[in-house]
Amino acid sequence: MNLKYRNELKYFINQHQYQIIRQRLKNLVKQDKHVGPNGEYAIRSLYFDDINNKALHEKLGGISDRAKYRIRIYNNDDTVIHFEKKIKFRDYIAKLKEPLTREIADELISGNYEVLRQSDKPLLIELHEEMKNNLLRPKVIVDYVREPFICVNGNVRITFDKELRTGLHSVDIFDPDLHCVRAIDDNLIILEVKYDEYIPEYIRIALQLEGLNRQSASKYVMCRKFLKTNSWEDY
């Protein structure tokens, strides 16, 4: 497949840093058109992993070329449902996605991959094979609130991801009564910066990236740590 790879930078910032950076950005760039009245939208993802927890261990092991599978919805609504594959190649990322119906999503969550048997979509064919041969299954729900900004120059996307929560052992992404627990310190926000070839200098100055500590900040790993069953597991 022809993939469009982008750069991705992640940082943990505190509330004070967030307020300063956010105020600067509001005077320089626009917000994503999909935000609600408060300038945010909610994201809920159901991450899949295989019988060997390959995605988890490759991330923890620092493997540079890896992939993760997930189902994603927005604002706790099943109107738009996507199955996504996020690919990391060295320091670059790419994403493939296909829309799902609620019926197919429910079947996949229950582990029934046969609903994809007749699919003609390469990504869904791949999902079928992964679920059949490697026992890829739903593992954990990752839930958070995103505040996004867009800069046309350089195709830069800047997001503040807040209130990261995990659904613990539940995998029903559509459960309106799902009880999620906090998976990150109350004071911390994940700043993500994605771009094609470059970050305009005025954006770089506003973000002051040189003064921040770059992190791996995997939401999947942070939420999986709540599912440890043995004290020696280092997630």
Automatic annotation (TrEMBL):
<protein>
    <submittedName>
        <fullName>VTC domain-containing protein</fullName>
    </submittedName>
</protein>
<dbReference type="Pfam" id="PF09359">
    <property type="entry name" value="VTC"/>
</dbReference>
<dbReference type="InterPro" id="IPR042267">
    <property type="entry name" value="VTC_sf"/>
</dbReference>
<feature type="domain" description="VTC">
    <location>
        <begin position="6"/>
        <end position="227"/>
    </location>
</feature>
<dbReference type="InterPro" id="IPR018966">
    <property type="entry name" value="VTC_domain"/>
</dbReference>
